């Protein structure tokens, strides 16, 4: 390689890396962003003339290291070392998923990584609040499907909770406000990801939004939740294929079986633990919903105007 080209190589690679990171930051694609947010760059990356001299493998290492460097720099408490024990799948989701930041009135004000949105340090210091959803799936026998979260989950591992709990992402399809379609789309996506239920078995228009809650809960000293949570109900018979990276176990429960599960959790029996959001819904809404499901009048219980602040 000529000396002049060799000397310019590190600087040129640095330029490529900076440009690529900027484009990755905008991977959600062009969307209508809220006032005050900054649109991600959309400049097309033009490779320098020497690029054909680089092997595809070395270029991939360059781009990969630029993204890894960016991700690892995000922890603010020396967490890069501690996070080395994080499951690879969960770590990828923590840094790649962009949650929707909202104010206490559910107005979109920006976005941030799943990692930052679940750090108690940032929740407390910056009051980060993100949009979430909780799905309650009941079968034709009026049994509620529960899941036990995987042991590799970063927040609340191995706790029992409702059918599916996750976040709409900062992308076009999951930001749609009309008829709560964005949240419904996100629920359909995650039910496939976590429980292997194909989208055609869960039409988005059959998810019934029943309400919204706002809560904060610590998982441990480092991680926690601060969510504005959409509560979605659906009555379907489905086939399950749980993803072990997300789900440790599943079971259907009737009302009496759920009461027994609550009793064991309260008594500390069998190491049963429940997620805090699930317990809030059980204590405040679920019995009434169950009544109306059996009567075929579930829609009458919907209240999407109120945001219930629960503790």
Automatic annotation (TrEMBL):
Q: What exactly does this protein do? A: Catalyzes the 1,3-allylic rearrangement of the homoallylic substrate isopentenyl (IPP) to its highly electrophilic allylic isomer, dimethylallyl diphosphate (DMAPP).
Swiss-Prot/TrEMBL keywords: Chlorophyll biosynthesis, Isomerase, Isoprene biosynthesis
Q: Which family does it belong to?
A: Belongs to the IPP isomerase type 1 family.
For this protein, what is any one GO molecular function term? isopentenyl-diphosphate delta-isomerase activity
- What's a GO cellular component annotated to this UniProt protein? cytosol
Q: What is its EC number?
A: 5.3.3.2
A Gene Ontology biological process noted in the UniProt record is:
dimethylallyl diphosphate biosynthetic process
According to the entry, every stretch annotated as the Nudix hydrolase domain falls at 128-280
Pathway recorded for this protein: Porphyrin-containing compound metabolism; chlorophyll biosynthesis; Isoprenoid biosynthesis; dimethylallyl diphosphate biosynthesis; dimethylallyl diphosphate from isopentenyl diphosphate: step 1/1
* InterPro entries hit by this protein: IsopentenylPP_isomerase_typ1 (IPR011876), NUDIX_hydrolase-like_dom_sf (IPR015797), NUDIX_hydrolase_dom (IPR000086)
Q: What Gene3D superfamilies is this protein classified in?
A: Nucleoside Triphosphate Pyrophosphohydrolase
Name of the protein described by the UniProt record: isopentenyl-diphosphate Delta-isomerase
Q: Which PROSITE patterns match?
A: NUDIX
Q: Which organism is it from?
A: Musa acuminata subsp. malaccensis (Wild banana)
């Amino acid at each position: 390689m000529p000396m002049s080209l060799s000397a310019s190589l590190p600087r040129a690679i640095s330029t490529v890396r900076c440009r690529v990171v900027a484009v990755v930051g905008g991977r959600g694609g062009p969307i209508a962003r809220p006032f005050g947010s900054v649109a991600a760059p959309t400049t097309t990356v033009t490779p320098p003339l020497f690029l054909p001299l680089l092997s595809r493998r070395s270029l991939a290492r360059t781009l990969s290291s630029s993204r890894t460097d960016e991700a690892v720099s995000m922890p603010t408490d020396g967490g890069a070392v501690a996070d080395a024990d994080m499951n690879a799948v969960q770590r990828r989701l923590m840094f790649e998923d962009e949650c929707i930041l909202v104010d206490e009135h559910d107005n979109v004000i920006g976005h941030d990584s799943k990692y930052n949105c679940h750090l108690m340090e940032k929740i407390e210091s910056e009051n980060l609040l993100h949009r979430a959803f909780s799905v309650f799936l009941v079968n034709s026998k009026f049994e509620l499907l529960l899941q036990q979260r995987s042991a590799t989950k970063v927040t609340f591992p191995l706790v029992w909770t409702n059918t599916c709990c996750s976040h709409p992402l900062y992308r076009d399809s999951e930001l749609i406000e009309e008829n709560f379609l964005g949240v419904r789309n996100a629920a359909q996506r995650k039910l496939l990801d976590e429980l292997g239920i194909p989208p055609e078995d869960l039409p988005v228009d059959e998810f019934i939004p029943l309400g919204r809650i706002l809560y904060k809960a610590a998982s441990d000293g480092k991680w926690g939740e601060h969510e504005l949570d959409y509560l979605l109900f659906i009555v379907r018979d489905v086939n399950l294929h749980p993803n072990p990276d997300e789900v440790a176990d599943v079971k259907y429960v009737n009302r009496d079986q759920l009461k027994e599960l609550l009793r064991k959790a309260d008594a500390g029996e069998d190491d049963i633990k429940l997620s805090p959001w699930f317990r809030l819904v059980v204590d405040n809404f679920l019995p009434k919903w169950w009544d109306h499901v059996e009567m075929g009048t579930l829609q009458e219980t919907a209240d999407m105007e109120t945001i219930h602040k629960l503790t």
